[in-house]
Amino acid sequence: MRVVSRGGALLIMGCLAGLTGVGSVCAEEFTFDAQQFEKKAFEFRGYAELEPTYILSNEAGALYQLEFLGERQREQIWRLPGALELEGRYRRDMATLSFRTHSTKVWDYRGESADHELYEGLLSLQPDPGFTLDVGKKAYRWGKGYAWNPVAFVERAKDAGNPDLAREGFWTLGFDWIRSFDGPLQTVAFTPLLLPNHGEFNEEFGERGHNNFAAKLYLLYRDIDIDLMVLGEGSRAARYGVDFANNFTPNFEMHGEFAYITDVPRRSLTPACTQGPRQVDNVISYLLGMRYRNEADATFILEYYFNGAGNREQDQRQFYDCVHQAWDAGDPTLLDGLPLDEDLDKGPFSKPNPMRRYLNFRTWWNEPYGMLYFQPGLQVLYNVEDHSYSVSPEANYSGIDDLDLRLRATFPMGDPLTEWGEKPNDYKIELRLRYYF
């Protein structure tokens, strides 16, 4: 009886693998090239995209009327937004210099408009694997929620319908200190930040003339991710937060966030379309959610969000009613007493999700029934207070090298004087073509 050595057994197994199409070690010996896994000194990548969009207007919607009051009416709107995002990184010794730029151009009924922003520009120094010093503009991601993040104290607001999009950061000075341990407490990380708000530095962060301090303490305890956050009083009111995430099983995860925010102004409107008495309160905001993936590789996310700083239902309805009054009278001056912003997405009553209680349901299915590179999905955003909602089905295809295609439609549903009932469109259809390089 002949005994096959361990090395010979490995060679035979390699040959059998080659016969099944996995690989072959029969013709040549296996080699390992460590250089393929070394970090490159310079990396550069990015994407370019076009997103032709068709909108059927909701001329009875307050947000449509707010935009077109005194302007030519448009039953249908065609838009062609384009974007170019570039990202680069250069490493040398302990230093890393990185950047991310974002440029947009839009063609629509108003003509052409363009915008160019530096999303991130950062110098990182890492003298030790457990310590990194960051200086520059950086977009932090605080919180575990997918659609909303109550504890995102040093970030710009997410778009709940497109939460994965990159966002512009703020200028900061900070460091990450990380330590690992044996035992139930496995990892500790501390990230303090200084955000100056002077001149053009972080002018959108709040009241100017402050040096703002924020910090996050991360703990990995028995496979539970926990963050403790704080933002000191300065350009914004002081706020304190905590979040968690835990995988109870490989396919089931729960996450949550809780924030306590001081000195939040309460907005109220009168029937005369003026602002009511100013009130300031301390409020809480929180989010609780779950994520589940089944055996067919379909993923489901469900989240409940309470925004203590949001508008009360009666004040939001009063805002919509005031816009309708100005529209019917053809008199924009009737809105002079309302808190408005030239950018409707930033106005306290016209921005996305301005109220207090919401649900987010999102699902997608990777390659259903063996359809390669195809991923259908669906998102429903629901306003728990006024019972309006939006339904957004989508289909993604990635079967062409470096090109992603997404077809998405959005259907707002709601009664008059509700959030989605007063949206500017009856429906919207978007086709996104994104090329990566």
Which features would summarize this protein structure in a list?
Porin; disordered N terminus; 19 strands; 19-stranded antiparallel sheet; 50% strand; single chain; mainly beta; 2 domains; 3 helices; globular; 437 residues
Secondary structure elements and pairings:
Blueprint: H1 6-19, E1 42-50, E2 53-57, H2 62-68, E3 76-92, E4 95-108, E5 111-128, E6 131-138, E7 170-180, E8 185-197, E9 210-221, E10 224-231, E11 239-249, E12 252-266, E13 279-293, E14 298-307, H3 313-329, E15 357-365, E16 374-383, E17 389-400, E18 403-413, E19 425-436
Antiparallel strand pairs: 1-3, 1-19, 2-3, 2-19, 3-4, 4-5, 5-6, 6-7, 7-8, 8-9, 9-10, 10-11, 11-12, 12-13, 13-14, 14-15, 15-16, 16-17, 17-18, 18-19
Structure description:
- By secondary structure, the chain is mainly beta.
- The protein folds into two domains: about 30 residues, no CATH class; about 400 residues, Porin (Beta Barrel), CATH 2.40.160.
- It is about 10% helix and about 50% strand.
- The protein contains three helices and 19 strands.
- It has a 19-stranded antiparallel sheet that branches.
- Strand 9 and strand 10 form a beta hairpin.
- Helix 2 packs across helix 3.
- The relative contact order is 0.12.
